[in-house]
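fyi for ur records
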Amino acid sequence: MPSEKITVSLLSVAAALFLTIIKLVVGYSTNSLGILSEALHSGLDLIAAVITLAAVHMSDKPADREHHYGHGKVENFSALLEAVLLLLTCSWIIYEAVHRLTHPNIHVIVTVWSYTVVLLAIGIDITRSISLRRVARKYNSQALEADALHFSSDILSSVVVLLGLIGAQMGWMATDSIAGLLVAVIVIFISYQLAKKAIDALLDKSPKAVELQIKEVLKQNHEISGYHDLKVRSSGGDIFAAFCIHVAPDQSIQDAHDIADRIEKHISESIRFTTHIDIHIEPEGHSESVHVEDCIS
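which gave:
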């Protein structure tokens, strides 16, 4: 299991815990909905970070007798769960923001600590988001990508809260509640993207970018005359692909096998992630195929 994935997940847990505590303390002391909503957001980030840590640990377990395709779907499921947690956060933020807008007697106290905690949060969120996204791309980890989206949404929402604090200090108390509502809108948008991607992976929707890469490899290969029945799916950080290739009818079994090996190696190098490729070999003319020159349609 890549220790880098575990390390970056542990750092995210620590960062989320720290941000949750300081936002709660400053939010309650200043009565700022913007900061309190951010504290709740960070609290959900903490839960999500713990889920991510568990998911990357479980998903990297090898295939066994009961799980022939490994445990990669754990990452996709954890990403969907994180999206649900974010939507639950939004429901409380929206409720409290509407309540405060209809009860304008609630006063927000803006102090130097209000600005300090928001600016500190932005700095930490930027650092964690960049680090998580880098490792997520390296290992094709949807769980880490979901965690990165959490921290990315925190950056945007913290900026909104900062603007709300400035407005409240100028006497426009409603701006803090409006900031809370804008945080909720941002989180809903991020949650939708995250949930859609997770559901697509759980339902084995073909990852188009990877599918195009495989088609490009087949197009460039001059040892085959065509292919058909290309199927691609993802499971966690792993890519599974299956297809049939067409070779000359007089090709020996050994030569056809060697061609398939070279294609498999080329695809693995092109995709860069862990790949599991199943190639069926057929003689040209045995069934309808997609000819190499028509690979990209």
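The chain has a mean pLDDT of 82. thats all i got for now
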